[in-house]
Amino acid sequence: MFNPLENNDCSVRSLAQATGSSYEAAYAALAAAGRVAGNGASILQIWKAAKALGFSISEVTTPKNTTTAKFSAKVAKLPTSLLICEDHVACLQNGVVLDWAASESLPVVQIYTVERI
After folding, report:
1. pLDDT tens-digit series, residues 12-26
2. In angstroms, rounded to a whole number, what is the distance separating the alpha carbons of residues 66 and 17?
3. pTM, 2 dp
4. Residue 112 to residues 3, 37, 38, 46: CA-CA distances in angstroms?
5. What confidence tens digit (pLDDT) does each residue in 13-67 have?
6. Are residues 109 and 117 in contact, defined by beta-carbon separation less than 8 angstroms?
7. From CA 69, how far away is CA 54, in angstroms rounded?
8. 110: closest CA among 80, 70, 82, 79?
9. How many CA atoms lie less than 13 Å away from 25 in the CB half-sphere?
10. Domains of the chain by start residue, with CATH
């Protein structure tokens, strides 16, 4: 199922990182939630996939001017979270952004904490 040549799989990578699941498990959960290979995922698809993997996601207030490269100490102290950008998803764990696109500073539009159910 893992396709190293697939584009637009940031939701798969981020969900796998946030839940401690394998890439394949996150890929399958997102596919079951309606994600089409090679396309991004909606927050509803990510929510359904997280639930299928035994996790819940909860929206938290996103401070103004938060980016994947610059965020407040308050954000850094959050439990494992998904940083939702306009066309991208990254994982925040222990105050560190885990993201293959980390060299870019992307505006964060919403933050969701990820916790085991």
Report:
1. 999 999 999 999 999
2. 21
3. 0.91
4. 26, 23, 23, 10
5. 999 999 999 999 999 999 999 999 889 999 999 999 999 999 999 999 999 999 9
6. no
7. 29
8. 82
9. 13
10. 10-116 (3.90.70)
